[in-house]
Write a structure and sequence with these properties.
Elements (H helix, E strand, L loop, with lengths): L1 E8 L5 H4 L3 H13 L3 E6 L5 E7 L3 H8 L3 H4 L3 E7 L5 H7 L2
Antiparallel strand pairs: 1-3, 1-4, 2-3
């Protein structure tokens, strides 16, 4: 199952509070990537967080793993976790032909 995780720095948290955890966050994210749990990862353009495409058994299992990220553990990141499913909208387009 693919799950989109949108992780943003909580409002009001200064960058000085984030910086001490950046290396540990990157190392944990790398472990998830190397184990094929994170399939893609991108910064949000304004650098307010990241968007990650996860692969997991369930929303609950991915949520459990996301909680291991240092910035999440420290209460710095707020995460929106969205389960995805294949887009089927093209089916109606092709049915009209």
């Amino acid at each position: 199952m693919q799950i989109l995780v949108i992780a943003r720095v909580k409002l009001g948290i200064p960058v000085e509070q984030v910086l001490p955890f950046v290396s540990a966050e990157a190392a944990q994210a790398w472990q998830f990537y190397a184990s094929e749990q994170i399939r893609q990862m991108h910064y949000i353009a304004d650098m307010s967080g990241a968007v990650m495409l996860w692969e997991g058994e369930s929303v609950e299992s991915v949520t459990h793993e996301v909680q291991k990220l240092p910035l999440v553990k420290e209460g710095i990141l707020a995460c929106e976790i969205l389960p995805l499913k294949p887009y089927t909208g093209y089916e109606s387009l092709f049915a009209q032909s």
